[in-house]
Amino acid sequence: MSTIETVLVTGGAGFIGSNLVDRLLADGKRVVVVDDLSTGKLTNLKQARESSTGEVEFQRLDLTSGALDTVVERHRPEVIIHLAAQMNVRASVEDPLYDATVNVLGTIRVLEAARQYDVQKVVFATSGGCIYGEPALEDLPVPETAPGVAHSPYGASKRCGEEYLRMYAALYDLRWTSLALSNVYGPRQDPAGEAGVVAIFTERMLAGLPCTIYGDGEQSRDFVFVDDVVHAFVLAMDRGDDERFNIGTSERTSVNQLFRGLAAATGYDREPVYAPERAGELRHNAVDARKAAQGLGWKPWTTLEEGLAATLKWASGERDAG
Ligand SMILES: NC(=O)c1ccc[n+]([C@@H]2O[C@H](COP(=O)([O-])OP(=O)(O)OC[C@H]3O[C@@H](n4cnc5c(N)ncnc54)[C@H](O)[C@@H]3O)[C@@H](O)[C@H]2O)c1
């Protein structure tokens, strides 16, 4: 049983963050959410504000501004879960300085606040799709030990953030865990964001609009359901110190397969529109999550079919409400 009482979640108004906040509150924690609402939304915290089991406080602030120190000093969380990030790969190529400002300097701000105010542990979100470069098909699913070179400023800034975690652990005894997530999907993923093919297809199919597939659709990804990812963050609060763990299903699903699965579930009867492949996109990816089973006691347990059904149910409810 965890003794942690107060958790600060950066990026807690975002897709993964707000799902995590709901889970922490259900577990009876005090949760401090820090977010600048650049891509996150206050409506994502609606359920959190109505929680009867935990307590939540929201602080709108930009991590890079230095204002985090005061919040950490006031609330004294035992753990910070650091999810706030610039996570658009193409935007990172167009503006690497902004990407590094949020993802590197923002992470240093988190570590500095943690060091000054005796936070015990920082749990970090990194990207299983972007830190290992482009592994050969025969090397998939990719393990944590894969060498790899980042192919985008986003991948580089995430690798750099993790280097800072290692360095703070060595210098200041600050504990850390880094979770390298594959392609996360589920309720509250923003269809306007660039990574969320599940969210984009779901929204367009429900509206009866055409769906575009870039390339031949045989490119594949490791789709992991958000509740499973949230569970990994909860476990990592007091397990798996000073290590990186891949979090994914280790299975590859092609975009064509995903399209067909969602079309069947929504009753969508249009064919996809094929458009030229987008430069810089990985052809195939999947992460090997066996280490997380050993070190965190984590396994994905939502099948793609169940996860898509839950996402669809949520998206239909949003359409009805809006
Ligand atoms: N969604 C995925 O498939 C995926 C895959 C791998 C890694 N990740 C990582 O998981 C984390 C969460 O991703 P997500 O999908 O929930 O994205 P998201 O965009 O929904 O969440 C990020 C949150 O951070 C906030 N934020 C951004 N810059 C900020 C700043 N300067 N100060 C304060 N808040 C700021 C945003 O407003 C948003 O609420 C990110 O670190 C991302 O890199 C996500």
Question: Quick summary of this structure?
Answer:
By secondary structure, this protein is of the alpha/beta class. The protein has helices at residues 15-26, 46-49, 68-75, 89-94, 96-116, 153-172, 197-206, 226-236, 255-266, 290-295, 304-321; strands spanning 6-10, 30-35, 55-60, 79-82, 121-127, 175-181, 183-185, 212-214, 220-221, 223-225, 243-247, 253-254, 273-275. Strands 3-2-1-4-5-6-11 form a seven-stranded parallel β-sheet, sandwiched between helices. It has a two-stranded parallel sheet with strand order 7-10. It has a two-stranded parallel sheet with strand order 8-13.
SSE diagram, text form:
Blueprint: E1 6-10, H1 15-26, E2 30-35, H2 46-49, E3 55-60, H3 68-75, E4 79-82, H4 89-94, H5 96-116, E5 121-127, H6 153-172, E6 175-181, E7 183-185, H7 197-206, E8 212-214, E9 220-221, E10 223-225, H8 226-236, E11 243-247, E12 253-254, H9 255-266, E13 273-275, H10 290-295, H11 304-321
Parallel strand pairs: 1-2, 1-4, 2-3, 4-5, 5-6, 6-11, 7-10, 8-13
Antiparallel strand pairs: 9-12
Helix pairs in contact: 1-8, 3-5, 5-6, 7-9, 7-11, 9-11
The protein binds nicotinamide-adenine-dinucleotide.
